[in-house]
């Protein structure tokens, strides 16, 4: 299952950039004992979020899945706002940040990381 974005994913993120801030939706499924490891990752990643002007908008534990197929429930949800897609890419490429990503990778069995853009008015 996918956990980390690859080079082609990051290139697509930049090539489809409409400009402006981006809020990244994170849907997380933890590996066994992964929740604690993810908390370690979050603490280690916090200085990089600050350095690049990003902010955690929301974090929550998964709860009752009302509309979902079997296996589609998530353990945690995060929304992280970055000043731009380029800023997100700069953070991901930061050598210091890359040192802490192993914690995230080992903590997760599956993830969705999706850029969102403002404007959907249902």
TrEMBL record:
Which superkingdom, per the lineage?
A: Bacteria
Domain DUF1330 span(s) in chain numbering: 35-109
PANTHER family attached to this UniProt entry: DUF1330 DOMAIN-CONTAINING PROTEIN, PTHR40257
| Protein's UniProt name | DUF1330 domain-containing protein
């Amino acid at each position: 299952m996918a956990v980390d974005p690859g080079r082609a994913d990051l290139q697509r993120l930049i090539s489809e950039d409409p400009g402006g801030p981006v809020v990244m939706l994170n849907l997380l499924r933890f590996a066994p004992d992964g929740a604690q490891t993810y908390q370690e990752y979050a603490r280690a990643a916090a200085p990089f979020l600050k350095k690049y002007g990003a902010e955690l908008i929301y974090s929550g534990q998964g709860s009752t899945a009302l509309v979902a197929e079997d296996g589609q429930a998530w353990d945690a949800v995060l929304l992280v706002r970055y000043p731009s897609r380029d800023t997100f890419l700069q953070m991901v490429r930061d050598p210091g940040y890359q040192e802490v990503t192993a914690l995230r990778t080992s903590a997760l069995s599956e993830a969705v990381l999706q850029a969102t853009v403002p404007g959907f008015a249902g």
